[in-house]
C-alpha cells in the first residue's frame, strides 16, 4: 500500500548562478556533479573543524541546486554558506515559499516519468521516497493520488530512525563529525572529489583515526521525547559519565515507548547501561548500530 506524507516541517535552499556547481563542490561533502533531478546526493556542509553545520538531500535541476533539510535549519545553513558565497557568482535563497515536498512509502507511481518533479529514493528497508517540486506541481500530484493513505510527520520520522538515517537540527549543528553518524556508509561523503571545507579533518579521521563513536538505534522506557543534542550517559557499577548525544527521537511502540537515534561511544564492558538522564531512570536499549539498516523490534 502506498502511503503519502506532507513534509511540512522541511524546506529548501535554492543555489543558482553561473558558479553554483563550483561553489557547492568546494563546500559540501558530497560530489555535487553526481546530483540530478532523479539522482539526489545526501551531503553535509561542515565547518573547518570538520563538524556538521547542516545535513541535506541535494538535487540539481536545469543548472540550479536545491538543498532539502529541516525547515528550522534553513537560516543557519544559508548564513554558513554565505560566508563563502561572496567569492562566487552565486545566489542563495530560502525556496520554501515556492517549493514543497511530500514523502512516499511504497512503489513510485509510473506517472512521475516525464514530469519536472524531483525525486529521491532513500536508503533503508522502509521503501521511502521524497518527491519535490513547485507547489502547484506537488498539489497536482497529490490530487492525482488522492486515494492513497496519508501518514503523519511522526510516522515519517519513525521510519527514518528505523532506517538509521540521521538529521541535523539547530541543537546539534556544529557538534558532530560525519563519521559519528554514519555519513560515509550513507554515501554522503566523497573521498575522491578533492578539497572542501572540513575535508582535511574528515579525511584524517577516515584514513588514520580510530573511531570510538557510532550511530545507534535505541529504544527507551520513557514517554518523554528527548531533545536532539541531549546527553547520553553510560552507567557502570554506579559510575556515570556522558558518552554521547541524542540525534533524533520519536514515539515508539509497546516494547519501547520512545525510539531514539543516538551517537555514542562504544561499550567497554558488557554490563554497562546507557540512559537518557543522570538518574538512571530512562534506560536505553540498543536495537541496532553502526550501519544504516532498520531494526524490527520496537
From TrEMBL:
GO biological process terms, semicolon-separated: iron-sulfur cluster assembly
Gene source species: Aquicella siphonis
Protein origin, superkingdom: Bacteria
Gene that this polypeptide is encoded by: ygfZ
NCBIfam families linked: ygfZ_signature
InterPro entries: YgfZ/GCV_T_CS, YgfZ/GcvT
Coiled coil: none
Organism taxonomic ancestry: Bacteria, Pseudomonadati, Pseudomonadota, Gammaproteobacteria, Legionellales
SUPFAM superfamilies per UniProt: Folate-binding domain
UniProt cross-references to Gene3D superfamilies, sorted A to Z: 2.40.30.160, Aminomethyltransferase beta-barrel domains
Name assigned to this protein: tRNA-modifying protein YgfZ
